[in-house]
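Re-run requested by the PI after the first attempt was lost when the workstation crashed. Everything re-entered from the original request form. Ligand of interest: 1,6-di-O-phosphono-alpha-D-glucopyranose.
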Amino acid sequence: MHLDLVGGEIQPEEEMDFDTVAKYSALHAKPPGLSSQYGTAGFRTKAENLDHTVFRMGLLAVLRSKQTTSTIGVMVTASHNPEEDNGVKLIDPLGEMLAPAWEEYATCLANAEEPELQTVLSDICQKEKVDLQHSAFVVIGRDTRSSSKELSQSVIDGVSALGGQLQDYGLVTTPQLHYMVCCRNTNGNYGRATVEGYYQKLSKAFMALMKQAVTERDGHLCLKVDCANGIGALKLKEMEHYLPKCLRIYIDNDGSKGKLNHLCGADFVKVHQKPPVDLEMKINEKCSSFDGDADRIVYYYNDAAGRFHLLDGDKIATLISTFLKELLVKTGQTLTLAVIQTAYANGSSTHYLEETMKVPVQCAKTGVKHLHHKAKEFDVGIYFEANGHGTVLFSKAAEDKIRHQAENEKDNRKREAAKMLENTIDLINQTVGDAISDLLLIEAILALKGWTVQQWDALYTDLPNRQLKVKVADRRAIDTTDAERQAVTPPGLQEKINALVKKIKQARAFVRPSGTEDVVRVYAEADTQENADNLAHEVSLAVYHLAGGVGEEPKPIG
Ligand code: G16
């Protein structure tokens, strides 16, 4: 298929031009035998092994665009992974993650040896009834990794090989590209499909919300942000020009000296439960960390006794749901509201949400695509992974009701609450978790409530917990069920975990294969840090021995 621009009109040919595809593909040849899988958030591996995959994702994006007659996004990033890794994921028409059936096509296409490429492409077209006559439009973005520029060029080659049109947004955060896709497919209803349009939409909503905040009268909001030496630093700096002076942001780890995600960033802070190395923190100073592509955020501070306090995705979900629930009550609207978590959610957070806040909680598999899907079942679905990845979804009906009430309600109190909800909707990036949007929402809520980070933290106390990684020969040896809370294989592993958990108070543990790194993840929580650490270690040993551990046996923590 080749699209020739004649007098500005696209002239599609009826059939796929395999000669052109083969010619381009030869420039992005797949190393024979190499195999990969579309995982939790697309493909992730060493950057040097990705060229053929990203080229083929350019091809696939064109087919998906033709099939949906919509703009499709391709983002080159490996988010929280180390600098030497890279990755690629496709973004579906409403800015959401790629549909599961197409994830499978992506895996087939990435793993096809060169001579099979034509057959695999034809099969996809046939199964999905792709009309090759349709035109295709693909938007591309990339993070700041040194390998990203060249890889995004390979995506462009893939799109061009199938005659798709494209716009390369260059350096953007992952959520910004999700936003662009949604804007383009909703005729600008969601916002303007430019980086400036994104800043304007969010800052306008933020300022409108802040008008009602106590803090604006009383002083300034200050926040230190560790940007993981990634794209978040660039974009937050750009956005600062659009934000009111009352919000003072101090950007750290802006990429000027440190390495991406190295000893800093949201993943480091969450997993190690300590601040980024070299970040200066005054007592009780409010700090936060983005991850490498700015789709996650966590907050933290050190108290007067020097103790580190982490406010992770669970605390963020609690803060946001408290705020939204209160507003919904004020409006008098009867809308369903729920929080979606994963198995990593701290037991205390689930208990607080269910027992104190009386908010229904559901558990989904790891990966925002799974949480997003569940959140859609409610009028207001708040989803957050403990690692700080999350957002809020409002159903179309809920959004319409709120906007209508904000315009027409006679009762002042109710109308004000509806207006606040309306601004909140506009501040939230509903396509995917977005560190910048989440930051602004959290700051607005804290300001509106007149809360310090310590008051927010005091909502509940986390159970001590520990996360570990175990290297195994093949992580597919571990299969799970019950939203990843139970291991089905290898035989005996779950029984061993059960026996270990039984011995400790308030204990819980699970294991699962990572979908972004070549490791098995272990999570444990318990009544004391020592017990959580020991439990995590014992479970790691069980994984190592029963699931084909490689390298050194896991060592005790400490
Ligand atoms: C990605 C996903 C997240 C997931 C994380 C870890 O985050 O978007 O939903 O929690 O990977 O996944 P896993 O445990 O399977 O490796 P990011 O920020 O790296 O894109």
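Saved to the shared folder this time. The chain has four domains: 18-171, 198-308, 313-435+445-457, 465-546.
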